[in-house]
Amino acid sequence: MKELLQHYERTKRVQSALVYLDKSGNLSDIKKTSLLYGNSQDVILYKFRLKLQPCDLIQTCAYLGNLVLSCPSEAEKIFQEVVYLVIKSLQLLPGELRKSQIAVNLKLGSLPAIKEQYYVKTVKDLPRFLKSGSFLGFDGVVTGLSAVSSYTQSTLYICPVEGCSGADGKQYIRVHVPGASELQTIRNDFHCFHCGMVLEEDKSKRVLAEKLIAELVPVSTLRTDGIGTGRTQAITVYFRDELVSIPVIGELYRVIGVVKADFENQNIHLVVEANNIEQLSAFSDIPYSLEQRYLPKCIQLLYEENVCSPWGFVRCLAYLFGESVTPPGSFHKLKLGILLSLVLTGSKSKTKSLFHILACGRESVVLDRLLRYGCTFAERAVTHSLCNAVTGRISKDPYHKSQYFVEGGSLSLATNGVCNIGDLGRYKKITKDIIKATLDTGRVVIDVSSKFSQGLPQQHSSPLRCHVWAYSDPATQKPSQYKDELFITGDTGELSKAMLDVFSLVLFTDGSDSISNFDEEISRDILRSAVHPDSLKPSITFQEFNKFLEIAREREVILTPAAEVIVQQYYQASRRMRSSDPSSSSVPVSTLPTLYSLALAHAKLSLRREVTESDAVMAVHLSEECLTARHGFSALSVRPMPHITCDDFNLQEMDEEMYVFHHRLLRFCGGQAPGHEE
User: Fold this and answer.
1) Where would a tag sit more exposed on the chain, N or C end, judged by fewer CB atoms within 10 A?
2) Residue ending a domain, choose from 226, 252, 280
3) Biggest CA pair distance of the chain
């Protein structure tokens, strides 16, 4: 009676699984996969991938849904039986077919949103999933990848005794199961069920596939908002088959898998065998509430006060930004550049413009503090240190599974965020050359040593997907040895023209009389913040600025034809005017995409839906100001003003100056047009 009841229950689950496969579209996928195998008689193992949504499966059959989550191996047996019955009933595959020839791979699309039960954060949470063998999920950033290696996906064992039923070549098929090692898949102690003889492997039937080992860390370790800034042990994940090509160093993923124990010598390591992987487009999967989508009240008031001015709102934001670091108005252009760069960062934005900043000045302590403060507003920020690699490093695989292991550098780990390089003067020439080449080509390249590549030249290359910030103190460096420019005003120390050209904006914070007005006030603020950290109350708090930047990043803006014309005409006229000969110009080619990025970022900060002429004019003005500070000449009569005093901060006068500059810009572009005659 008990056996009949168990048979009845299993039949019910098989029927429920069949109903779900039909509803979810997996049944048609089984038919399509069967057609791909065709009439081939040489196939030993037929593989079928089933895509499951556990929450939907639970609604069809609660027991089966929970079985998939808590005991995947038992659930695979049920779905294997279902696929076998479907193929036999519909005669989808030719010839005699055994159930052992059907391999089912259950791919989970998601896990129930019960984070305490199904999700882990660190390595210390893995042991509770080891014994149960249930599925788990976690979010992490890939910090390292091994080289792709091979593993045995399936193989065939036969009985050596002629005439035995186990010698037909289709009964003993060994298939890799999640969590199993190579030694568990390939063994020499299997015995025939019929005669008891030791089975022999038919190595000609062995099927190899690819695998990859990755290390992932929680995203909180790569944020600078104080949520979690310590070092965290990485979670090791095994990716196999079609999942091998997905992981990229620096990207954020959600991984679903099972825990397995990896034995090496006398050590035991808990690792995750990936079942599925999904790239996340944001650092939080919690949607914004209606209240969170509104602008902070103080910023809303500031916006309404400057609604008639196309430039006033952004100017006020830059003026009030970083009050806890430096007084309002000091380092105004650098603060503006930081805001423009921040609004272009983030994984939610469809705009993938890279915007690199280099600040040159003798106030290195303040520059460092400002850049670090700006990093706290980025979704992800990595401050590079000398003990880390800039692009990454190749080392021996610590898991002994592949030829080498790629450790991600600071530029890769800061994907969709900001990489703060710090003081360029502290690096050796070889490191500076690596930084210059990476920013110039837009690719992070790691050379693989010949001892890992069997003597063949090999590189690991990936696109650069972060904004790079740096500063330079000319006082701590040797005088510049590069005299290939016609005009040189801004002191850049020993940095070459090629190094300066790879940055989108080179902002000089010296060379203005206004800085002397801030020296005493900056010193007073530093002392006050050190003695009484809570005494400085900014006009706009960190939380309010952060909320505003999150809203501004999500805005999608369209480039208008009028703005595009201004940018292109200025770029062409400026290169022509600042060229010492027809083949070279002091205006780098990268200026054009920089102008587009500046105009786009200014439109986002202004909360507009279109990049207007005003945004393009501001982009040109800021670019011209940087070029003038560097070369000492401006045909548009632009005077560099890295700092603005309280008395000079008159929005009405500034707007009038910008309107005058706009008319002057139009005449300049027309006067430098080809074929123009006075």
Assistant:
1) C
2) 280
3) 107
